């Protein structure tokens, strides 16, 4: 079984060399504990080349159901027949914003393939318990990641209060903040926020290729 650091793209390992000890400490604390997602999926967001990242979507922590958590924030596996409520709301906003067809599954990896990093502030949780691994030190690690991305001037989509704690790191023109897509908060500013079209407009302004947000 590969260690968490060994699951990362080589460029991430180089960029985060000073933070790898934190990652090793977290992995040691996870030893023998039942957690989500699978060990092999914890670093899924870091398997892509950081040099190609153009957009950050920042969440809180993994879905607390075994059938849902797969290592990318807000995403579930293509094989899963369930689309969690938060993701249903993301899809509703996507369709309203861009007029796309409503996606047929919950797999967002097509976004990752284009340079969208789907990152949670905590990369693991206990089954059935949201925000249960905050104490492990994940945010020390992921805040460093977000800082690096901010230095690279990526566009940041920050959904919810937890993600918004990192808003000060980004240029205002690259920052897109709203309420979380959870059913508990989506009506407080997530619906109608149009993050997908706004990010693409900003990418074009920066001379970069926009994201094809359409999903199968």
Q: Your description of this structure?
A:
The chain has 216 residues and is of the alpha/beta class. The chain has a single domain (5-205), classed as 3-Layer(aba) Sandwich (Uracil-DNA Glycosylase, subunit E), CATH 3.40.470.10. The protein contains 7 helices and 4 strands. It has a 4-stranded parallel β-sheet with strand order 2-1-3-4, sandwiched between helices. Strand 3 (155-159), helix 6 (161-164) and strand 4 (175-178) form a beta-alpha-beta unit. The longest helix is centred in the middle third of the chain and has 14 residues, at 85-98. The protein is globular and about 45 Å long. The chain starts with 9 loop residues before the first helix and ends in an 11-residue tail after the last helix.
Map the helices and strands.
Blueprint: H1 10-15, H2 20-30, E1 55-59, H3 85-98, H4 109-112, E2 116-120, H5 138-151, E3 155-159, H6 161-164, E4 175-178, H7 195-205
Parallel strand pairs: 1-2, 1-3, 3-4
Give a brief rundown of this model.
By secondary structure, this protein is an alpha/beta fold. It is 30% helix and 9% strand.
């Amino acid at each position: 079984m590969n260690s968490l650091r060994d699951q990362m793209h080589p460029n991430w390992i180089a960029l985060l060399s000073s933070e790898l000890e934190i990652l090793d400490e977290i992995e040691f604390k996870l030893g023998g504990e039942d957690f989500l997602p699978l060990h092999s999926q914890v670093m899924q967001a870091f398997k892509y080349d950081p040099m190609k990242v153009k957009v950050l979507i920042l969440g809180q922590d993994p879905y607390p159901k075994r059938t849902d958590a797969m290592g990318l924030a807000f995403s579930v596996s293509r094989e899963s027949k369930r689309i969690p409520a938060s993701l249903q709301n993301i899809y509703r906003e996507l369709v309203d914003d861009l007029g796309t067809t409503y996606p047929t599954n919950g797999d967002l990896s097509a976004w990752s393939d284009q340079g969208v990093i789907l990152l949670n502030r905590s990369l693991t949780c206990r089954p059935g318990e949201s925000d249960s691994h905050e104490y492990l030190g994940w945010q020390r690690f992921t805040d460093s990641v977000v800082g690096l991305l901010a230095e690279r001037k990526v566009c940041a989509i920050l959904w919810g209060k937890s993600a918004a704690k990192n808003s000060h790191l980004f240029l205002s023109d690259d920052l897109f903040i709203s309420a979380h897509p959870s059913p508990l908060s989506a009506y407080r500013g997530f619906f109608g926020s149009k993050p997908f079209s706004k990010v693409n407009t900003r990418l074009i302004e920066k001379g970069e290729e926009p994201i094809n947000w359409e999903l199968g």
